[in-house]
């Protein structure tokens, strides 16, 4: 089947792209478009053209799978030039998403009609590349340089209404966009309106100082990312060159970017996330979740309840007593009010969400829920009791999920009448904001229950990765190894600010000790108390958390002091008292503190995680390295432009990592630094986690 076809209706020819799944501008589409527009130009019966797409979406971009391969003619910018040059008016009919090369194509059309649900954007920089087919010079001519760069540097799409307001589309329709575009074209013919080429519009310069200002802002908001700054270069050059010169400049910068390590890592991130959220061997889900129950209205429970409400799923929330229930309903109400105040939500949507919420103290009220998730205190006995109460009152086929972050799901399911209904759904705090969801398959979870929670994860807008039972599952298990190493580094000579700076410079939003302060040192301390019997002698003896939490009541940001000191705005400063405590603790325990280099800190933090990641793969807790990468990029701030820990490991080279693991085994101790057999085996073969 040809991917581009044409048909004539009256004097209007529709050129239709049909290239599932997202109508990307693959080479066949580019060639097909050239042929179709040449035909339209030559055909005397054709007086106007509608450019439309089959399926749910307009062109969602260039074909990412072609990136990194030898280019094939024609280039997309040449196709768009041909469309724009057409002597007959060309109307784009936009439904779904017009992204990247798709929006560039629409900008080359003379008019744009969009369905009201359509979204348009230039997400290239999120893939480490830049609009390479005239997107920036054309968009800047239509909406001004600042708005064009807002789209290109954020990568975020705008709605059809916002696009109309800024002058990006000519009409928004509630009708079928193709039919509306046909009418629009007929109207143009009736009015005698001809082509209106974006390239011919004047380009107004932005206010003085604008480019310096946006570069400075991007250096902070997009720290470490190269592509957004190249978008700024393209906009700046568009003012200095003629139109064709600026398109050529953007094309050249695209060519350079597409071959960059950041672009390769971000492409990996794109495909890894898609692979990671589709576990093999699950059936199609047989029923959606129509009502969810949440037991426990603390921070996690309220966040989880809001996830459901935000996705349009009504929630029954169970709390123990009236006071606790009132507090959590109040918290949810307040969060939505603040969303309205910040313009993120309108009043009607806020009301709809609140209408979906039912608070109760009776487990009986869970009887109409398709899924109930417990988010109570992290204690096996407490959770077991809650599970039993849920099972006693919920429907026999309801899925019963635990939000535990460390406890053994299979032990939790013991004694349940229907262990096949038991699963884990590990949300990350704040649950209504964080993208990651670790869905946990218990030994006895049914494939259908797992299929349903995977589908639910997608509906909640999460990156839902299925993992196996293991202490801390995937993310927290690797994090706990990194944390251990960070505490060791404090003993051996580093200070929190050095460790945190190294992790921040690598691209994490914050370092280990900042993270501890944010989450609450009491949380880390309690987790440590619960695991004391499983810690090594050295870990048990490490007294810094006990000193900070138990003796000095430094609980982190919330108490104004933790590893750092915080002012009323939560601005962080280094606290000499903490440095002294760390030094005293090390001295007391006989450590000879030394100057530790940044490279050692980085290696120890990352390689210990990578080694644990290899074990996680060996044990089948994760089945593919993509799952680990997706988890770390979406739940722990691993910089996307480095592709996740397992991808990063391949870039460094497993033989080098193995050699360093051996060196740290000598230096720190083999009990912490024994190479995972999988890592050792891959390194020996000269392979990687992603290459054989
Ligand atoms: C660009 O355009 C550069 C230009 O300036 C160029 C100049 C020269 N290519 O996400 P989904 C696949 S850069 C190839 O699950 P959804 C995807 O892998 C590009 N494949 O669906 C998946 O395949 P599979 C700028 C693509 O409904 C399937 O489609 N464009 C592409 O949740 C379904 O995807 C972008 O960055 C592609 N461009 O979301 C847009 N896009 O089933 C990237 C998707 O085999 N795409 N696939 O696993 C998206 O953001 C989302 O896919 C979209 C749909 C919102 C469109």
From TrEMBL:
It comes from Bordetella genomosp. 10. CDD domains: crotonase-like. In the N-terminal section; belongs to the enoyl-CoA hydratase/isomerase family. Belongs to the enoyl-CoA hydratase/isomerase family. This is 3-hydroxyacyl-CoA dehydrogenase. SUPFAM superfamilies: 6-phosphogluconate dehydrogenase C-terminal domain-like, ClpP/crotonase, NAD(P)-binding Rossmann-fold domains. Pathway: Lipid metabolism; fatty acid beta-oxidation. Its main location: other. Residues 472-566, 601-686 form the 3-hydroxyacyl-CoA dehydrogenase C-terminal domain. It comes from the Bacteria. It catalyses: a (3S)-3-hydroxyacyl-CoA + NAD(+) = a 3-oxoacyl-CoA + NADH + H(+). One of its GO terms (molecular function) is (3S)-3-hydroxyacyl-CoA dehydrogenase (NAD+) activity. Keywords: Fatty acid metabolism, Isomerase, Lipid degradation, Lipid metabolism, Lyase, Multifunctional enzyme, NAD, Oxidoreductase, Peroxisome. PROSITE patterns: ENOYL_COA_HYDRATASE. The keyword Isomerase applies. It holds the Pfam family 3HCDH_N. Residues 292-467 form the 3-hydroxyacyl-CoA dehydrogenase NAD binding domain. InterPro entries: 3-OHacyl-CoA_DH_NAD-bd, 3HC_DH_C, 6-PGluconate_DH-like_C_sf, ClpP/crotonase-like_dom_sf, Enoyl-CoA_hyd/isom_CS, Enoyl-CoA_hydra/iso, NAD(P)-bd_dom_sf. It is found in: Peroxisome. GO terms for biological process: fatty acid beta-oxidation. Transmembrane segments: none annotated.
């Amino acid at each position: 089947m040809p991917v581009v076809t044409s048909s004539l209706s009256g004097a209007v020819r529709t050129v239709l792209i049909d290239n599932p799944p997202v109508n990307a501008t693959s080479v066949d589409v580019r060639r097909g478009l050239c042929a179709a527009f040449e035909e339209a130009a030559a055909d005397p019966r054709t007086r106007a053209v509608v450019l439309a797409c089959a399926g749910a979406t307009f062109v969602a971009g260039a074909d990412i799978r072609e990136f990194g391969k030898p280019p094939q003619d024609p280039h997309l910018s040449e196709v768009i030039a041909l469309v724009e040059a057409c002597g007959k008016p060309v109307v784009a009919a936009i439904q779904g998403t017009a992204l990247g090369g798709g929006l560039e194509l629409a900008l080359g059309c003379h008019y744009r009609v969009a369905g009201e649900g359509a979204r348009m954007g230039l997400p290239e920089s999120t893939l480490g590349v830049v609009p390479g087919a005239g997107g920036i010079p054309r968009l800047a001519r239509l909406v001004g340089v600042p708005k064009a760069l807002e789209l290109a540097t954020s990568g975020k799409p705008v709605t059809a209404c916002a696009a109309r307001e800024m002058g990006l589309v000519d009409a928004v329709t509630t009708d079928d966009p193709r039919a509306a575009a046909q009418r629009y074209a007929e109207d143009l013919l009736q009015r005698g309106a001809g082509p209106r080429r974006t390239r011919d519009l004047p380009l107004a310069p932005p206010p003085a100082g604008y480019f310096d200002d946006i570069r400075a802002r991007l250096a902070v908001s997009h720290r470490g990312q190269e592509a957004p700054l190249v978008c700024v270069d393209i906009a700046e050059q568009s003012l200095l060159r003629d139109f064709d010169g600026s398109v050529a400049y953007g094309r050249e910068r695209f060519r350079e970017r597409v071959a960059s390590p950041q672009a390769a890592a971000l492409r990996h991130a794109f495909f890894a996330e898609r692979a990671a959220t589709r576990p093999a061997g699950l059936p199609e889900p047989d029923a959606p979740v129509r009502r969810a129950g949440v037991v426990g209205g603390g921070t996690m429970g309220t966040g989880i309840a809001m996830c459901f409400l935000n996705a349009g799923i009504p929630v029954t929330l169970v709390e123990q007593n009236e006071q606790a229930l009132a507090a959590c309903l109040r918290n949810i109400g307040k969060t939505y009010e603040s969303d309205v105040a910040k313009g993120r939500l309108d009043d009607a949507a806020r009301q709809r969400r609140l209408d979906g919420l039912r608070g109760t103290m009776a487990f009986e009220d869970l009887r109409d829920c398709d899924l109930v998730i417990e988010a109570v205190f992290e204690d096996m006995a407490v959770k077991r009791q809650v599970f039993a109460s849920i099972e006693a009152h919920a429907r026999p086929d309801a899925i019963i999920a635990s939000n535990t972050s460390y406890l053994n799901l299979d032990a939790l399911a013991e004694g349940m009448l229907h262990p096949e209904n038991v699963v884990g759904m590990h949300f990350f705090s704040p649950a209504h904001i964080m993208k990651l969801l670790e869905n946990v398959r218990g030994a006895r979870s049914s494939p259908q229950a797992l299929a349903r929670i995977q589908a639910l994860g997608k509906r909640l807008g999460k990156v839902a990765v299925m993992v196996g039972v293991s202490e801390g599952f995937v993310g927290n298990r690797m994090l706990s190894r990194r944390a251990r190493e960070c505490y060791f580094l404090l003993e051996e000579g580093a200070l929190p600010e050095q460790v945190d700076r190294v992790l921040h410079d690598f691209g994490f939003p914050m370092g280990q000790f900042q993270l501890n302060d944010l989450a609450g040192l009491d949380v880390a301390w309690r987790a440590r108390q619960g695991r004391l019997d499983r810690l090594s002698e050295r870990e048990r003896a490490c007294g810094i958390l006990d000193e900070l939490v138990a003796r000095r009541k430094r609980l982190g940001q919330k108490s104004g002091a933790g590893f750092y000191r915080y002012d009323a705005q939560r601005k962080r400063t280094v606290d000499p008292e903490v440095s002294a405590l760390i030094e005293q603790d090390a001295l007391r325990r006989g450590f000879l503190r030394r100057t530790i280099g940044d490279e050692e800190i980085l290696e120890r933090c990352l390689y210990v995680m990578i080694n644990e990641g290899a074990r996680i793969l060996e044990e089948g807790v994760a089945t593919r390295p993509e799952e680990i990468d997706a988890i770390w990029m979406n739940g722990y701030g691993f910089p996307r432009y480095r592709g996740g820990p397992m991808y990063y490991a391949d870039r460094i080279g497993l033989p080098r990592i193995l050699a360093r693991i051996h060196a740290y085994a000598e230096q720190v101790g083999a009990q912490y630094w024994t190479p995972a057999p999988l890592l050792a085996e891959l390194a020996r073969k000269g392979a990687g986690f992603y290459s054989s």
